[in-house]
Amino acid sequence: AKGAGGNVIRFFDPEMQRVVREEVSLDADLRTAVDRGEFEFHLQPQINRFGTVVGAEVLLRWPHPVRGLVSPGVFIPIAEKSGLIVPLGNWVLDCAAKVLSNWAAKELFSDINLSINVSANQLHSEDFVETVLGAIERHGARPRRLKLEITESLLVNNLDDAIRKMTALQQHEILFSLDDFGTGYSSLSYLKQLPLDQLKIDRSFVSDLPQNKNDAAIAEMIVALGRTLGLHVIAEGVETEEQKGFLEGIGCDQFQGYLFGVPMPLDQFEEFVSALGS
Ligand code: C2E
Ligand code: CA
Ligand code: CA
Ligand code: CA
């Protein structure tokens, strides 16, 4: 019989205990780091079909004093559980708005959007709309340059709240991208209810292109869907020329991945864009 007593046994599992203890200590370190503002962000270029940099995704980095650079894949889930993701997300938002207004002041990169990742806790927090608009106003950034990446999983619990807040922000010209598209609880019905600008093809559908026929069909379907709904489509995790060629062939209009550039600090990103002459 599967399952019977499974949880009880696992409760005493020393490996589980180690994992729990590890999480607790990381959580405490995370709290301290948020208080002290010890985070960094990297920017990963997003390229259009002409090779022009049209955007960048802002990706959090945590230089931990002992553990070295901790991956967001590790600390974001912990920050989500404890609610720390809200102040952390606000910090990212503030950084993005600051970068956009600095570029505008220097008359630099006026066509480059910044995409930031938004967690469920953040979107569903009471003052999310005011927080986003506040950051933009505080720095005098152009709202149309800011794109919020949301995931499908964030919509399942409270779709109405998500639609309400996204619509309010869209009225202020904030853009939205549906991240990791196709990996969540895909329901096509919400696609037409959400004020989206972009669909983002998940890396899991890109990495085995063009050989994997299923992934090829899914990628094609997403691009066609995007076109029908009037949305831009970007592919993430593009690592090879073959992947790029296939995606171009099916009409994908933007690309992000190691083939073009890894996530990098702001100054390097600025050099990267300048060197491309875009
Ligand atoms: P994501 O939103 O799907 O971000 C894309 C991830 O893919 C990033 O990992 C990026 O470095 C990585 N990546 C980009 N191009 C390639 C490629 O060509 N090949 C491969 N193998 N990977 C590529 P990263 O930076 O480790 O971030 C992991 C996740 O952490 C993100 O996944 C996102 O869900 C979350 N995250 C990062 N920053 C933030 C943030 O500020 N707020 C929130 N809520 N989540 C964040
Ligand atoms: Ca993302
Ligand atoms: Ca993604
Ligand atoms: Ca992904």
UniProtKB/TrEMBL annotation:
It comes from the Bacteria. Residues 23-277 form the EAL domain. Coiled coil: none annotated. This is Diguanylate cyclase/phosphodiesterase with PAS/PAC sensor(S). It comes from Rhodobacter ferrooxidans.
